[in-house]
Amino acid sequence: MWTAESRTFVGDFGAGQALSDEQYAFLVPLIPPAKPGGRPRTTDMRRLLDGLFYLVRTGCQWRHLPPPPAFPPRRTIYGYMRAFADAGVWESIRHHLVVMLRERDGKEPSPSAAIVDTQGVKTTEKGGRAATTRPRRSGAASVTSRSTPAARCSA
Predict the structure, then answer these.
(1) Phi, psi of 63, deg, nearest 5
(2) What is the pLDDT of residues 15-71, one digit of tens each?
């Protein structure tokens, strides 16, 4: 549970938007366990998720992620983010959230209909690059080339 002492790790970086106990309890079963064998996992998964959500929420660059102790090192967060993507963890979390929200709103867990819009991209019958128009090149020289004198060699 978050205490005043543990929240000081996040400080102003989280702007009070760290995962609540309820939110983290929902995500815990969806996070894969540490791999068997080798070193045990030492990364605090709650702080790792707080760091990832901080990046998404603020749109900051990886290099500007607040350093430890606010969040784990950025390379650790990035490595877990990629591993979770490869293992399908993000899709699983998304699916569980969608089902939960649909059931909360009194709807069926999965949608019964979808709309597909076919007017997105127009092309010629051939398709491919022939559908795009190439830009015209101006016949006049650029201002830079006119203002720069030609180099001359004296013999």
Answers:
(1) -65, -20
(2) 456 888 888 999 999 999 988 888 899 999 999 999 998 998 888 898 988 888 889
Distance of CA 90 to the CA centre of its chain: 11
DSSP SS3 for 32: coil
Are 19 and 53 a contacting pair, CB within 8 Å?
yes
Q: Please name which of 50, 41, 82 lies closest in space to residue 69, comparing C-alpha atoms.
A: 50
What does the DSSP assignment read for 33-94? Answer: PPPSSSSPP-S-HHHHHHHHHHHHHH---GGGSPPTTSSS-HHHHHHHHHHHHHHTHHHHHH
CB atoms within 10 A of CB 16: 8
Q: CA torsion angle for 54, 16, 34, 25 (degrees, to 10)?
A: -130
CA distance 14 to 32: 24
Please name the residue that has the structure tokens 């699983």: 92
